[in-house]
Write a sequence for this structure.
């Protein structure tokens, strides 16, 4: 899943559903998310949910970038 900024919105539903399926004992494939926003402290609205999902294994790998938290812009792929 690749969802920068508000693009994360639909994927929160995917992640919640996969968490629910796992709770039912169903097998789900890998769940890999790439997302990013300008500032971690201002725009990373789902931080708690995403970190918890990674901790419990619902998200296999959480990849995040904060483009404007430092002098030079940073993105996940370049
Ligand atoms: N007033 C505010 O403080 C504020 C804060 C956030 C968003 N907004 C506005 O809210 C609207 C929606 O924002 P949003 O959160 O969906 O998006 P966004 O904040 O514009 O972008 C989200 C993240 O994706 C990056 N990005 C943008 N275009 C990209 C591209 N072509 N390739 C790779 N990364 C890219 C942005 O980096 P960059 O640093 O390069 O933009 C930012 O880190 C926009 O109109 C935005 O201007 C306002």
């Amino acid at each position: 899943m690749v969802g920068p900024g508000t693009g994360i919105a639909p994927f929160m539903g995917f992640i919640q559903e996969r968490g629910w399926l796992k709770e039912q004992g169903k097998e789900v494939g890998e769940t890999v998310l790439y997302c990013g926003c300008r500032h971690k402290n201002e725009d990373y609205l789902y931080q708690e949910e995403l970190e918890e999902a990674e901790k419990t294994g619902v998200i296999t790998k959480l990849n995040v970038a904060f483009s404007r938290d430092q002098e030079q812009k940073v993105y996940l792929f370049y």
